[in-house]
Amino acid sequence: MNLKQFNIRLQFRKEFVIILLWTFLVSLVIIISYHSIYLTNVRWQTYKVAWDPIEGPMLNLWGVVALIILSFFAGYSLKNTKFFVFGFLLTLILSFVISVIFGFIYIWFGLGFSEDLGQIPFGWEWAFYMSLLNCFRIYVPHVLVLLILGSGFGHLIGGYYSP
Protein backbone atom coordinates (compact mmCIF):
# COMPACT_ATOMS: atom_id res chain seq x y z
CA MET A 1 0.00 0.00 0.00
CA ASN A 2 1.43 3.33 -0.95
CA LEU A 3 1.09 6.63 0.90
CA LYS A 4 -1.74 7.95 -1.29
CA GLN A 5 -3.98 4.94 -0.58
CA PHE A 6 -3.20 5.25 3.11
CA ASN A 7 -4.21 8.92 3.11
CA ILE A 8 -7.48 8.12 1.31
CA ARG A 9 -8.33 5.43 3.86
CA LEU A 10 -7.44 7.72 6.73
CA GLN A 11 -9.59 10.51 5.29
CA PHE A 12 -12.54 8.11 4.88
CA ARG A 13 -12.21 6.90 8.46
CA LYS A 14 -11.98 10.46 9.77
CA GLU A 15 -15.13 11.53 7.92
CA PHE A 16 -16.95 8.38 8.97
CA VAL A 17 -16.13 9.08 12.62
CA ILE A 18 -17.31 12.69 12.21
CA ILE A 19 -20.62 11.48 10.75
CA LEU A 20 -21.15 8.95 13.56
CA LEU A 21 -20.28 11.55 16.21
CA TRP A 22 -22.64 14.03 14.57
CA THR A 23 -25.42 11.41 14.57
CA PHE A 24 -24.84 10.55 18.21
CA LEU A 25 -24.83 14.18 19.35
CA VAL A 26 -27.95 15.13 17.36
CA SER A 27 -29.72 12.11 18.87
CA LEU A 28 -28.59 13.17 22.32
CA VAL A 29 -29.99 16.69 21.86
CA ILE A 30 -33.31 15.26 20.68
CA ILE A 31 -33.47 12.77 23.55
CA ILE A 32 -32.82 15.54 26.08
CA SER A 33 -35.53 17.66 24.46
CA TYR A 34 -37.88 14.67 24.49
CA HIS A 35 -37.27 14.01 28.16
CA SER A 36 -37.39 17.68 29.23
CA ILE A 37 -41.18 17.93 28.92
CA TYR A 38 -41.52 15.30 31.63
CA LEU A 39 -39.22 17.36 33.86
CA THR A 40 -40.87 20.76 33.29
CA ASN A 41 -44.59 20.14 32.65
CA VAL A 42 -46.63 19.20 35.72
CA ARG A 43 -49.47 17.62 33.72
CA TRP A 44 -47.09 15.35 31.81
CA GLN A 45 -45.36 14.37 35.08
CA THR A 46 -48.54 13.67 37.02
CA TYR A 47 -50.57 11.79 34.42
CA LYS A 48 -47.63 10.24 32.52
CA VAL A 49 -48.90 11.41 29.14
CA ALA A 50 -47.34 9.54 26.23
CA TRP A 51 -48.71 11.70 23.42
CA ASP A 52 -50.89 14.77 23.15
CA PRO A 53 -52.10 16.30 19.87
CA ILE A 54 -51.82 19.87 21.18
CA GLU A 55 -48.65 20.01 23.24
CA GLY A 56 -45.59 17.82 23.25
CA PRO A 57 -41.82 17.67 23.25
CA MET A 58 -40.20 20.54 21.38
CA LEU A 59 -36.71 21.95 21.06
CA ASN A 60 -35.80 24.61 23.58
CA LEU A 61 -33.31 27.42 23.03
CA TRP A 62 -30.33 25.32 24.15
CA GLY A 63 -31.29 22.53 21.79
CA VAL A 64 -31.52 24.95 18.86
CA VAL A 65 -28.12 26.47 19.64
CA ALA A 66 -26.54 23.03 20.14
CA LEU A 67 -27.92 21.73 16.83
CA ILE A 68 -26.70 24.78 14.90
CA ILE A 69 -23.20 24.59 16.41
CA LEU A 70 -22.93 20.80 15.96
CA SER A 71 -24.12 21.01 12.37
CA PHE A 72 -21.80 23.89 11.59
CA PHE A 73 -18.73 22.05 12.84
CA ALA A 74 -19.78 18.82 11.14
CA GLY A 75 -20.29 20.64 7.84
CA TYR A 76 -17.01 22.47 8.29
CA SER A 77 -15.13 19.23 8.98
CA LEU A 78 -16.56 17.29 6.03
CA LYS A 79 -14.56 18.64 3.08
CA ASN A 80 -15.76 16.19 0.44
CA THR A 81 -19.20 17.15 -0.87
CA LYS A 82 -20.19 13.54 -1.50
CA PHE A 83 -19.43 12.61 2.11
CA PHE A 84 -21.22 15.73 3.27
CA VAL A 85 -24.48 14.96 1.43
CA PHE A 86 -24.53 11.27 2.32
CA GLY A 87 -23.42 12.05 5.87
CA PHE A 88 -26.22 14.57 6.25
CA LEU A 89 -28.82 12.06 5.06
CA LEU A 90 -27.33 9.31 7.22
CA THR A 91 -27.30 11.60 10.26
CA LEU A 92 -30.88 12.65 9.70
CA ILE A 93 -32.17 9.10 9.30
CA LEU A 94 -30.10 7.43 12.02
CA SER A 95 -30.70 10.13 14.62
CA PHE A 96 -34.45 9.91 13.94
CA VAL A 97 -34.39 6.12 14.34
CA ILE A 98 -32.36 6.35 17.55
CA SER A 99 -34.72 8.99 18.97
CA VAL A 100 -37.81 6.92 18.13
CA ILE A 101 -36.27 3.86 19.77
CA PHE A 102 -35.47 5.87 22.90
CA GLY A 103 -38.99 7.30 22.94
CA PHE A 104 -40.46 3.83 22.63
CA ILE A 105 -38.33 2.49 25.48
CA TYR A 106 -39.19 5.48 27.62
CA ILE A 107 -42.93 5.17 26.96
CA TRP A 108 -42.93 1.40 27.37
CA PHE A 109 -40.76 1.09 30.47
CA GLY A 110 -40.28 4.59 31.93
CA LEU A 111 -43.94 5.62 31.88
CA GLY A 112 -45.19 2.12 32.61
CA PHE A 113 -47.31 1.62 29.51
CA SER A 114 -46.11 -1.99 29.32
CA GLU A 115 -48.65 -2.88 31.99
CA ASP A 116 -51.60 -1.37 30.11
CA LEU A 117 -50.66 -1.93 26.49
CA GLY A 118 -49.09 -5.29 27.23
CA GLN A 119 -52.57 -6.70 27.86
CA ILE A 120 -53.71 -6.27 24.26
CA PRO A 121 -52.23 -8.00 21.20
CA PHE A 122 -49.61 -5.87 19.51
CA GLY A 123 -49.91 -3.21 22.19
CA TRP A 124 -46.26 -2.32 21.77
CA GLU A 125 -47.14 -0.90 18.34
CA TRP A 126 -49.20 1.84 19.98
CA ALA A 127 -46.27 2.87 22.16
CA PHE A 128 -44.02 2.85 19.10
CA TYR A 129 -46.57 4.92 17.18
CA MET A 130 -46.77 7.51 19.98
CA SER A 131 -42.98 7.71 20.05
CA LEU A 132 -42.90 8.13 16.28
CA LEU A 133 -45.42 10.97 16.45
CA ASN A 134 -43.51 12.75 19.22
CA CYS A 135 -40.18 12.49 17.40
CA PHE A 136 -41.72 13.54 14.09
CA ARG A 137 -43.08 16.62 15.86
CA ILE A 138 -39.57 17.51 16.98
CA TYR A 139 -37.84 16.74 13.68
CA VAL A 140 -40.15 18.36 11.16
CA PRO A 141 -39.52 21.23 10.49
CA HIS A 142 -37.25 22.34 13.35
CA VAL A 143 -34.39 19.84 13.33
CA LEU A 144 -34.50 19.45 9.57
CA VAL A 145 -34.13 23.20 8.96
CA LEU A 146 -31.46 23.64 11.65
CA LEU A 147 -29.38 20.75 10.28
CA ILE A 148 -29.64 22.07 6.72
CA LEU A 149 -28.74 25.64 7.67
CA GLY A 150 -25.96 24.83 10.11
CA SER A 151 -24.25 22.11 8.11
CA GLY A 152 -24.71 23.88 4.77
CA PHE A 153 -23.22 27.10 6.08
CA GLY A 154 -20.39 25.18 7.75
CA HIS A 155 -19.66 23.25 4.55
CA LEU A 156 -19.56 26.47 2.52
CA ILE A 157 -17.21 28.15 4.99
CA GLY A 158 -15.08 25.00 5.22
CA GLY A 159 -14.81 24.78 1.44
CA TYR A 160 -13.91 28.45 1.16
CA TYR A 161 -11.22 28.37 3.85
CA SER A 162 -9.80 24.90 3.13
CA PRO A 163 -6.13 24.75 2.07
Descriptive account of the structure:
The protein has 163 residues and is mostly helical. The protein has one domain. It has six helices and no strands. The protein has helices at residues 3-40, 42-47, 61-77, 81-110, 113-117, 124-161.
List the defining traits of the structure above.
163 residues; mainly alpha; 0% strand; elongated
Q: Uncertain runs with pLDDT below 50, 5 residues or more?
A: none
Task: Give, in order, the helices and strands.
Answer: HHHHHH
- Approximate shape: elongated
Residue-averaged pLDDT: 90
Helix fraction, binned, reads: over 70%
Oligomer: single chain
Number of strands: 0
Q: In the residues, how many domains can be counted?
A: 1
Strand content: under 5%
User: Helical stretch count?
Assistant: 6
Q: Structural class, from helix and strand content?
A: mainly alpha
Q: From the alpha carbons, calculate the radius of gyration and give it in angstroms.
A: 19 Å
The main β sheet shows up as:
none
| C-alpha termini separation | 26 Å
Topology:
Elements: H1 3-40, H2 42-47, H3 61-77, H4 81-110, H5 113-117, H6 124-161
Helix pairs in contact: 1-3, 1-4, 3-6, 4-6
In short:
The protein is mainly α and 163 residues long.
